[in-house]
Records
---
Amino acid sequence: MGLSSTLRCLLFFLGTCGICSGFLQENCTDYQLQFERVFSVPGDVAMLHSTLVSPDVFNFTSTPYNITWYDSKTGQEINNQAGRILVQGETLWFLRVELEDHGEYVTILRTPSQCYMQATKLVVDAPVVGDCGRPRKGYQTLTKGATDVLSCPLSDHINKLESYSISSSVQWYRGCELIEDGKGKYTYWDMIKLKIDNVDFQNNGSYTCTLTFTLGGVTGSMSETIDAWVREVYSLVPQVHEPGNQSIKAQIGSNYSQRCLVFVPCVGKPMVDIMWLVRNDFVMTSNPADRIYVSEYREWSQDVSPKGVWFERLLMFSELREEDLHVNYTCRVYSYRGLPEGYFTLLPEDPNIILPIGLLLGSMTVLFINSVIIYYLFKVDIVLWFRGAFPVLYPNKDLDGKQFDAYVAYPQPCADGFSEKVEEFALHTLPQVLEKACGYKLFIAGRDCLPGEAIVDSVEENLRASRRVLLLYTASTFISKRHTSSTSSNNNNISKSSENNQGKTTDDSSMNYESDKDVYSYTRQPFECVAAMHRALLEGSLKVVLVELEEISPAQLALFPESVRQLRKRQGAVCWWKNLRKRQRSGTCIRRREDEEKGGQDTQLSPSISPSSRFWKEMRYHLPVRGKRVVFPEKTALLNL
Ligand SMILES: *[C@@H]1O[C@H](CO)[C@@H](O)[C@H](O)[C@H]1NC(C)=O
Ligand SMILES: *[C@@H]1O[C@H](CO)[C@@H](O)[C@H](O)[C@H]1NC(C)=O
Ligand SMILES: *[C@@H]1O[C@H](CO)[C@@H](O)[C@H](O)[C@H]1NC(C)=O
Ligand SMILES: *[C@@H]1O[C@H](CO)[C@@H](O)[C@H](O)[C@H]1NC(C)=O
Ligand SMILES: *[C@@H]1O[C@H](CO)[C@@H](O)[C@H](O)[C@H]1NC(C)=O
Ligand SMILES: *[C@@H]1O[C@H](CO)[C@@H](O)[C@H](O)[C@H]1NC(C)=O
Ligand SMILES: *[C@@H]1O[C@H](CO)[C@@H](O)[C@H](O)[C@H]1NC(C)=O
């Protein structure tokens, strides 16, 4: 109302001044002053544009019309002036604006029957000294942390130029400084836009875009300045965390649900929609009766960096069917920053493989345990077979300096514990099998040593020349006839010897050479036994094989020297008496209850001289590999397994 009265006043004023000719006499439909002002500065191009050519005004496709521009100050019609003014129908160009151009310009549109009138205002501001931008500024916001754009407000002008096939170019300035395309965070984009990556507060400021083109023979430009305000409130591209484009195994017939989990990095409340799509159709229903349905949103905010809001929306199947498999289920987020999405596919569940794997593992365990048991039961046979089958593995080491495979020790005649049966075994049965049948070389004390030799020296020497010691004994071998009367002195001796040896630190007095000597002194057991025990137990240099000719009861065992008991406990003994019973037992001679009950009944020695019997196999197992020599102790341990 104010504007139109201003114009009327102006027109009246012009009219009364009589300067005006043409347009005031006509009875035109008055569209009055356009609200949009045109701002310019001296030297720029300014474009004035009338909106009368519009279907709202008249049917311009069917009706012929003429447009004339008038300067309201002079009332004169405006005509083209080279390099200054260009009239193009409803568009009036000032190619080089001057301060005097400031004012209103009137458009009159005439059809054969009608006349329309409109005024447009051009505002020409004097430039501000020291400011490269335009005095009139628009403002736009930039979002901190986002990739954001500034949009040059000259798109109308570009479109107009394009309609006349006039090319133009845009340049951006920050303050007075030209922004180069692609430099730093800035990219020229989409004709009239400036893209700024990862906006921060330094991007706050004035930006000017300048449009340059050639029109009417003149190269001109026009500019707009934008104040860019960087805001902290933002909402970035939503991130779809679930589903992660994967295939999921599911059981047909069961219910199933998959959540869509979305994180929107933002400050303030983000505007997003989360939709589930199946075969490009939205799942809208949240009614479980519809079989495939969605839940309501659930949302919660995250206050620690990165700040934002989480959204969750479930896609649910009340019962999975075959047709639901191998289909993409897509969760799509609608936001003004884009439409990120994630999808998943359902696959039929594999048959349960835990059971077969369990069975396999179980049977492998059983097999392993069986192998171990079988190995222990048939260790002797396996090792002997191995020695026979792979003699290559047992290198011939005849040069280990030893003369005998075994030193056979047993109570000599006249000594306590002497037994004819033992001697018979040592002098006849042993050589018959081991020497004649198996080819071992034995040193048998009562056979191979000359009577009257210095016993101690000869024993030491021959022990050293032997690879094993076979210690033959019966229940009575270690038991003195005077034993019962000297039990107390035994204890005394041990305690005395402990006192004697206070300087030495031995955990077990039985392993003490002196103490064994004491035992020897009253049991008069063969000296070589003591020496061999000593070396076997303390030095580990000599392997002693215990050969038990009679069954030993625990009571009898208790009277054995400690060193023999220890050795017997540790490595067991080879039991001749078991061979006599024709029973095959494991190598240890630890008595069982039922054995004990039958004890004494079958302690008779009778020759069983087949080398393939259990007893001889065990003997061969304990003896060195025949004819081959093993020198290194670690190898011995390995191959004598
Ligand atoms: C102008 O036109 C209007 C209607 O469009 C009419 O009422 C008025 O009388 C006319 N005036 C003149 C001077 O022709
Ligand atoms: C304009 O005139 C043409 C031709 O007479 C006609 O087809 C069209 O419908 C008219 N448009 C309007 C908006 O009246
Ligand atoms: C437009 O102007 C031309 C010449 O100036 C004239 O011949 C024509 O009749 C005019 N048309 C209308 C609709 O006024
Ligand atoms: C951003 O720039 C405008 C001027 O362009 C200034 O008024 C405002 O204080 C600036 N804001 C910040 C946060 O720097
Ligand atoms: C899933 O696929 C969509 C488009 O197919 C892709 O935009 C999105 O980054 C993918 N998500 C993942 C986690 O790979
Ligand atoms: C899915 O089935 C299980 C039992 O099979 C039930 O506990 C659960 O509540 C069901 N879920 C839905 C969403 O129906
Ligand atoms: C699911 O969508 C992905 C990517 O959008 C496509 O590669 C795949 O072939 C689709 N699978 C099915 C079964 O439609």
---
Amino acid sequence: MRCILAASLAVATLAGRVLAHPAVSYGADDEGPVRRRKTLGFGPVHPHAVFRQVPQQPLPGFAPAPLRDPVEVAKHFVGGLLRDQLRAESGFVVRKDSYTDKATGVTHVYIRQVVNGIEVADGDINVNVKDGQVFSYGDSFYRGPAPSFYSSAVVPHPHADYCTELEYELESQQDRFEQWLGAAGQGEQVQLVRRRFNEALHEPLKRIHSMNCAFVNLPYDLAHKSTAAALEDPRHALLQFMVAATPEEGVVQDILAKYDEYLEGMKSTFEAHLVGDMQTMVEVIDNVPDAVSPVKAKLAYVQVPHGDKTTLDLVWKFEVEMKDNWYEAAVSAKAPHRIVSVVDWASDSPLAPVPKEPTERKLATYNVFAWGINDPSVGNRSIQKETYDVIASPFGWHGLPYANDPTEDDFKRASKAVKNTTTTWGNNVFAHEDWEGRNAWMYNYRPDAGESLNFDFPYEPKLTNTTDALEEAQKYINATVTQLFYTSNMVHDLYYRYGFDEVSGNFQQHNFGRGGEENDAVIANAQDGSGYNNANFMTPPDGQNGRCRMYLWNTAMPYRDGDLEAGIVIHELSHGLSTRLTGGPANSGCLGWGESGGMGEGWGDFLATTIRSNKNYSDYAMGAWAANRPNGIRNYVYSLNETINPSTYKTLDKPGYWGVHAIGEVWAEILWVVSQRLIAKHGYVDSLFPPAPLDNGTIPSGDFYRPQEYTAAGEKKPLVPKHGNSLMVQLVLNGMKLQQCRPSFFDARDAIIQADQVLTGGENYCELWKGFSSRGLGPDARVEGRTPWGGGIRTDDYAVPKACLED
Ligand SMILES: *[C@@H]1O[C@H](CO)[C@@H](O)[C@H](O)[C@H]1NC(C)=O
Ligand SMILES: *[C@@H]1O[C@H](CO)[C@@H](O)[C@H](O)[C@H]1NC(C)=O
Ligand SMILES: *[C@@H]1O[C@H](CO)[C@@H](O)[C@H](O)[C@H]1NC(C)=O
Ligand SMILES: *[C@@H]1O[C@H](CO)[C@@H](O)[C@H](O)[C@H]1NC(C)=O
Ligand SMILES: *[C@@H]1O[C@H](CO)[C@@H](O)[C@H](O)[C@H]1NC(C)=O
Ligand SMILES: *[C@@H]1O[C@H](CO)[C@@H](O)[C@H](O)[C@H]1NC(C)=O
Ligand SMILES: *[C@@H]1O[C@H](CO)[C@@H](O)[C@H](O)[C@H]1NC(C)=O
């Protein structure tokens, strides 16, 4: 293990490109007030974590397969897996967000490790069970001896090894960067790139270093003052974290100057929470500087590598909601100056029972860029109907029970009746203006179409100059909120039909009694005033609202409005999808940094590109209209042509590929190439939306699914999308559900291949492998010296498994 812990630039925004290509012009984003959100994202790497397939295992003495309770099967399996490896103090609980996927019949069981009665926050096993058999699992459980709870053992001094590693990393980054720049010569572009390097990578790393290693310089010498108290009192660790996390230098200075005052001001209450069937105590701390809501704190263990050994460190686990971030942080409980890991939930960027014939109310209409038109450069607006999917949105897009409407008073909320709105307010999405760029959203302005439900508002932006550009853009707020509402609802319904439903953690106020946690529709801010030229999404665990913020782009005159570029909206909403599906609905910490954080970006680009594509193949850029750059906001456009987009797995080794967006671009390109192989084999369907159910609830195959097949026992098999593009979307979503928390490229690739095994019996095994291999992600691709921001030395493999050599 060369490096234990380091910073990644997990800028979870749409456009995080920082230092990729010095030759590219950065255009207007150098001039305008570019929104650069501060964000932290780093944590230990777990070399022992695996994602594995399990050969068919007969379990002697068990009931016939279909009768077995999948959770019992999973528990039995995990018991076997851990036999002889865990000590008496160690156990596990089955998380309540485990679920059975109605479409595939796969039960996804999430298991959390418990040592000394305390959760191991990164000790996860996810077990995939079908027909009474475990067929794959991911495992990052800790295997060493349990620490004694109050052991004074390991700790404090500023983990010398860790700080040395960080210093080494800082230096070698600088060296590599200088070397690379050396070849690029001088000039303005190079200066710009240098500045960006410092801002984006070097400064944050230095900051982490000083937060964690400048032990002796702390104003109150916390090493002595708070170490003893920290185990009982999370406030020390929390204040330390806020010092590192706040983007406001003034707040930092103020905390340092009035440390005791802040400490006293923070008041705690206690709540009992259940993890599986284990009760844990959560401390809820109010008055935390720069947090916008009370912070949740609980004791947990995390696994930290020390040299070549991994130990369990006791930490305070915090959930901190701030204006621009929503952090899940682990701070050492024994050395409260030390942040062990941080994930920012903000990312910048057979189906359910069929309800009765739903709404009889008038359907809304919207003057919008129709689904499939990516942005104003490819088509004009037209009047579209409220074409909601009856399975995904039984009350339509404008109906929700009074009980789930947070703006209603207690009296109204006692009613189960359905409220029908005439604004952009519904069960899936609350869309509105946020010119002030604030956190408040409930009473923000929303267009009201009145009884007609006709959301037809003008959009005729006139040529402007900088003085009146903002004012001009704001004139069309009615049209842009309408568009954001329409696109977001379409995305909700589409992902629902591919399996992002209530039990798997989707975003809805009301769940129609279908399970999962409620009251978590997407809060969608149009024209968010906190900046320009970006977009972001915050994904807390199931049961808390996701937040989508869209910005104006000052890249052209008149300003361009991100709300009108479907690809950007889809990218952002896909963060919610991948975060909730990976590692289970209640775990939002699985795509925090490095390769997993990068894929969190890549899935969004891939889905946005797939949705806008049509039967005639074409290359596509991401964000080209909003950014006013033909090649968009990534290094390359998505293309089958290796000259146009040369990305392979090994591309991740290059300087400029340390941030999640660059990593994500490589992943999205690989998926794009793979999907074209499936399209070549299975053809293309114009609409990705599956057919509506018949009156008796049956989903007809139509031209969308293959004819229904049955098992030997006469049961329906999962419906299989017939065409290449729809099948790929299905495999990508099913793969997210199979893969483990903090997946690597290899894990996510294997999960997609396995999703095909489950769905079709593996008939696309060779097409999928050939696709992945063509971009270096063959079976023998390797990485050595993996680092938490995605660094390492990679080897491409262009070979395919033996079984695929024949044809
Ligand atoms: C909303 O519309 C539904 C379906 O058309 C109707 O049953 C319901 O009564 C309406 N709600 C109210 C409060 O009018
Ligand atoms: C939009 O409509 C105008 C006027 O009919 C037409 O000139 C223009 O080409 C259309 N734009 C696109 C992108 O189709
Ligand atoms: C900008 O536009 C406004 C309104 O169109 C005009 O009054 C003003 O003179 C323009 N300013 C410049 C610098 O062109
Ligand atoms: C938005 O629409 C409402 C209702 O039609 C209208 O009163 C208002 O002036 C519009 N807002 C803007 C900025 O045009
Ligand atoms: C695809 O190309 C054909 C032939 O050029 C054209 O007729 C058709 O309209 C195109 N389809 C789409 C969806 O662009
Ligand atoms: C790939 O792109 C390059 C550069 O645009 C072009 O010269 C080449 O013909 C393309 N290859 C194919 C197979 O289309
Ligand atoms: C539902 O209706 C369709 C068409 O009428 C019929 O083919 C199918 O067998 C029915 N399914 C059930 C479960 O009744």
